[in-house]
Specification:
The protein is mostly helical. The chain contains ten helices and no strands.
Length: about 200
């Protein structure tokens, strides 16, 4: 496994090739990951999925029926329960989690590449269980393959650097910056990494 210093060098190289200048002096991430169990990660993915669906107009009663069918009642957060069941909360908060879903989708090996400069795409919903027909999530649990720790650490390291970069008040104008700022991957992957215990 690559060292944190080697992983950081790769992250800086990726940023540099995209025209982003990031200080090499930023602290390294801890090399020890405490990744949650795969079934927990899949469950969190589907909690994001059902909450985002309701945020975009999916019927609440059907959403809760699917939650019960898939035995996700104890996996939803309090905020998700309040929103999905009773409509309490801002839809936008759950709509923006779609990129966090995409990050988890990548983490679980369902897609080959996580591109920080692109969003998940309009067809992402077709890769998830079809809530309209109450499709079971069992195939996703069966097919999931969590990525190697080095891949996860590398993604988190790059997300960390880009989070610091996008948080700067003064940034040079460029197409790379525009693409980066228009993508939700940065904040979403950072949030996912924090939840996962990285």
């Amino acid at each position: 496994m690559a060292s944190p210093t080697e992983i950081r060098a790769r992250s800086l190289s990726i940023a540099s090739r995209s025209g982003l200048l990031i200080a090499a002096s930023l602290p390294l991430l801890e090399p020890d990951l405490h990744v949650r169990r795969q079934d927990e990660v899949v469950g969190r993915l589907f909690c994001f999925h059902v909450a985002a669906a309701v945020a975009y107009g999916f019927d609440r009663a059907k959403a809760m029926a699917w939650v019960q069918q898939e035995k996700l009642g104890n996996v939803l957060t309090n905020a998700e329960v309040c929103f999905v069941q009773r409509g309490e909360g801002r839809p936008q908060e759950f709509q923006t989690q779609v990129e966090g879903m995409w990050a988890l989708f990548w983490t679980l090996g369902f897609v080959q590449k996580l591109d920080f400069w692109k969003d998940s795409g309009d067809n992402f919903v077709t890769l998830m269980p079809n809530l309209l027909v109450g499709q079971s999530s069992s195939d996703w649990y069966r097919k999931a393959r969590t990525r190697a720790e080095e891949e996860l650490l590398a993604a988190c390291d790059l997300a960390y650097l880009l989070t610091v970069y996008t948080g700067r008040s003064a940034r040079p104008k460029s197409k790379a910056n525009d693409r980066l700022l228009n993508s939700g991957h940065i904040s979403s992957l950072s949030a996912v990494a924090h939840w996962n215990g990285f």
